[in-house]
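Summary of Year 1 activities. Much of the first year was spent building the evaluation harness for sequence design. The harness presents a backbone, in tokenized form, and records the residue chosen at every position. We chose the following record to illustrate the format because it has been used consistently in internal testing since the harness was completed.
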């Protein structure tokens, strides 16, 4: 394999449209087309991760015939196909045939055990726009013989259990269903199913059950056997009850020759769990290392001082994360908290006559979740690994500092580490699934939008309080247990990154020109006509990151304000997704519109050096991505220019510019040349060593294998390009005349 090219299907891109891009991708030099989920999703899905039928290729994309045609055309050009699998969840939707049957027949359904549902109670469905009693009183629900017998209301319907329609009275009919209708505002309080993070419309699958695994894996496994799919990416591996067993079964099903990558977020120095049968992660940690390496240390220190002085910001990010968890868990993840308390109580009564009461358990559980340091542990059956035991014990010790007594914490730790009965197992599995949701919602989706200092570091898999890396640190990462494998992916943009790669490097440029950015911010504060400096600091970086050079596009201000509205709701300080304060949002966003209008009327002089440095950093980012261990993963349009913010901005329809700018052409040319080099020296990049060095302001990264060396070299000071090259690559196996590949900065 040489490199993958990620293509987001839907939003106007189906298999037929994807087929037209194949000659371009083959000429670019990638080896695999990597597709977002191809399986039938809910009607109108814009991303495909809300899979409704994992046993069918989505007719909206062209169905199996369309996919077969795309794969065969790709292979004729020397391209393989990588598929995105979603084993953790499917759509809690009537588009889901398994779910329709489970709604109608309840625990008697052939698919009842496919879903992570507690069938000791009714399946809670918060589908109604208003409270059920109010809608019943107004006669807004009615019985119908459609759909094989159903109750319907404006905008929705649900299937009825067989024979219950004969009861006649709609209130009586509803009491005899396997589900309980509620209005959408009550979803956060109590649920009877496991969901994806706090998305109630995505229901957890029990893929740890061999029958469910077989049903969900049947189609992609067949596509592999038939030679139509050649690599697999696994979405949200940490959501599974037992990731290691899933990967073992998957490997047994598809064979050893098919690369399998997992979406696994490694925090700090966390390593991939031992024994996982995978070729590596999707590469967030590699992207983190690149950004940290390209951040200028002295400039960052000055930027930090400016930020503190102008906004009153402080760098206690760890405390901010814990405060975010303390808010997010009782609000967005209250249902999960209640489930864990119930499971813990059930486990503790097995061998204790006087277990802690529910409120004591709630305090202890909340403290455990607040202080848990990473996405999850991986304890299946005791004994836990020394690493997992240490994580649990350290979490208990930290949490105990905040509580009047630690007995309940120690009891919960005992269930996690040593419990062998079935109730302990159920609690352990659920706890380990919930911790990942806590980290994602509190850190990536809350604290990242509160900590405004340097948004280039606020990225999936990264830590805003550790934004710097040098050659020595990179070498330490290479040799660590977390260090990138040559078979793993290396990404700088994805459909889930908070900012696209070139936007991130635009923002990274402020560490090289801190005084310039401070001046840009000061002017923005005047334009904004408001005193919320933290918001303006965030908005100024965001607008810089997507500013169209040389002239702003017609939708620039709208893109900015929509992102900032999302940022305000994610941050959760003046507004929330569940109960948005539109008036407060609009008042805040008005300042961003003022800044954008001022820039459009007269682009600030400070933009020019930041844009130029951002372009140079983007090309260095590309060079490092191609040289690091791992398989480069190019997000759609990433070989040209990606000036995008978080979704949905980064999931806009794929299109290549008809007339590329100087930067787009430079990046495209560099991508082609570097992919060609990787193909010519595949032995070096597939199994070679990596070593970084820095001396006299020159950074080098050398890959070695079989006596051959390929070395990337660039100056740290991006203003000093006296030899005319931004970076160069030397290949010891090349002829003297071709030994130096020089890459000039864009004009």
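For this record, the design step produced the sequence shown next.
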């Amino acid at each position: 394999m040489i490199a993958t090219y990620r293509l987001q299907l839907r939003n106007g891109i189906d298999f037929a449209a994807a087929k037209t891009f194949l000659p371009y991708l083959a000429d670019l030099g990638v080896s695999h087309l990597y597709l977002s989920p191809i399986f039938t999703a809910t009607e109108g899905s814009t991303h495909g991760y809300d899979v409704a039928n994992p046993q069918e290729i989505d007719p909206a994309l062209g169905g199996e015939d369309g996919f077969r045609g795309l794969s065969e055309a790709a292979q004729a050009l020397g391209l393989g196909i990588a598929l995105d699998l979603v084993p953790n969840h499917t759509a809690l939707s009537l588009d889901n045939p398994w779910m329709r049957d489970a709604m109608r027949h309840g625990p008697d359904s052939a698919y009842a055990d496919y879903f992570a549902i507690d069938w000791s109670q009714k399946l809670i469905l918060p589908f109604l726009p208003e409270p059920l009693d109010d809608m019943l009183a107004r006669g807004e629900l009615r019985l119908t013989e459609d759909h094989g017998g159903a109750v319907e209301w404006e905008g929705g319907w649900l299937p009825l259990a067989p024979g219950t329609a004969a009861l006649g009275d709609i209130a009586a009919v509803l009491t005899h269903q396997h589900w309980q209708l509620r209005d959408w505002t009550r979803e956060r309080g109590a649920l009877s199913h496991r969901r994806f993070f706090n998305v109630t419309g995505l229901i957890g699958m029990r893929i740890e059950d061999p029958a469910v695994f077989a049903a969900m894996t049947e189609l992609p496994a067949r596509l592999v056997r038939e030679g139509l799919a050649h690599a697999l990416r696994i979405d949200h591996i940490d959501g599974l009850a037992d990731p290691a067993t899933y990967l073992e079964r998957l490997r047994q099903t598809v064979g050893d020759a098919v690369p399998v990558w997992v979406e696994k977020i490694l925090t700090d120095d966390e390593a991939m769990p031992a024994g996982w049968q995978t070729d590596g992660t999707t590469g967030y940690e590699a992207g983190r290392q690149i950004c940290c390496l390209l951040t200028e240390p002295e400039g960052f220190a000055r930027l930090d001082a400016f930020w503190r002085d102008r906004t009153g910001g402080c760098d206690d990010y760890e405390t901010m994360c814990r405060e975010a968890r303390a808010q997010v868990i009782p609000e967005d993840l209250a249902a999960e908290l209640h489930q864990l308390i119930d499971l813990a109580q059930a486990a503790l009564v097995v061998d204790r006559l006087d277990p802690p009461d529910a409120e004591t358990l709630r305090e202890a559980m909340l403290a455990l979740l607040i202080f848990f340091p990473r996405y999850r542990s991986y304890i299946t059956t005791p004994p836990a690994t020394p690493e997992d035991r240490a994580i649990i014990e350290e979490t208990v010790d930290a949490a105990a500092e905040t509580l009047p007594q630690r007995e309940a914490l120690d009891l919960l730790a005992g269930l996690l580490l040593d419990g062998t009965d079935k109730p302990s197992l159920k609690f352990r599995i659920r706890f380990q699934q919930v911790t990942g949701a806590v980290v994602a919602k509190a850190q990536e989706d809350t604290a990242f939008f509160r900590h405004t200092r340097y948004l280039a570091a606020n990225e999936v898999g990264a830590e805003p309080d550790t934004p710097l890396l040098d050659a020595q640190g990179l070498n330490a990462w290479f040799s660590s247990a977390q260090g990138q494998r040559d078979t793993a992916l290396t990404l700088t943009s994805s459909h889930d990154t908070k900012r696209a790669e070139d936007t991130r490097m635009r923002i990274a440029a402020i560490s090289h020109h801190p005084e310039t950015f401070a001046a840009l911010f000061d002017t923005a504060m005047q334009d904004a006509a408001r005193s919320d400096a933290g918001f303006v600091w965030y908005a100024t970086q965001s607008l810089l990151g997507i500013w169209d050079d040389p002239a702003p596009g017609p939708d620039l201000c709208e893109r900015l304000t929509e992102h900032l509205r999302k940022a305000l709701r994610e941050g959760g300080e003046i507004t929330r997704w569940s109960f948005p304060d539109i008036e407060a949002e609009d008042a805040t966003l008005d300042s961003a519109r003022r800044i954008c209008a001022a820039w459009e009327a007269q682009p600030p002089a400070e933009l020019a050096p930041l844009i130029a440095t951002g372009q140079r950093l983007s090309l260095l980012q590309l060079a490092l991505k191609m040289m690091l261990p791992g398989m480069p993963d190019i997000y759609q349009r990433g070989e040209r220019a990606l000036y995008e913010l978080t979704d949905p901005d980064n999931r806009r329809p794929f299109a290549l510019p008809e007339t590329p700018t100087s930067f787009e052409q430079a990046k495209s040319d560099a991508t082609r040349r570097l992919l060609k080099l990787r193909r010519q020296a595949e032995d070096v990049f597939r199994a070679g060593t990596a070593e970084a060095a820095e001396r006299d302001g020159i950074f080098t990264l050398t890959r070695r294998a079989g006596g051959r060396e390929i070395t990337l070299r660039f100056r740290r000071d991006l203003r000093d390009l006296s030899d005319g090259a931004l970076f160069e690559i030397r290949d010891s196996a090349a002829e003297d005349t071709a030994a130096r590949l020089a890459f000039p900065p864009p004009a």
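The radius of gyration is 27 Å. Quantitative recovery figures across the full test set are reported in Table 2.
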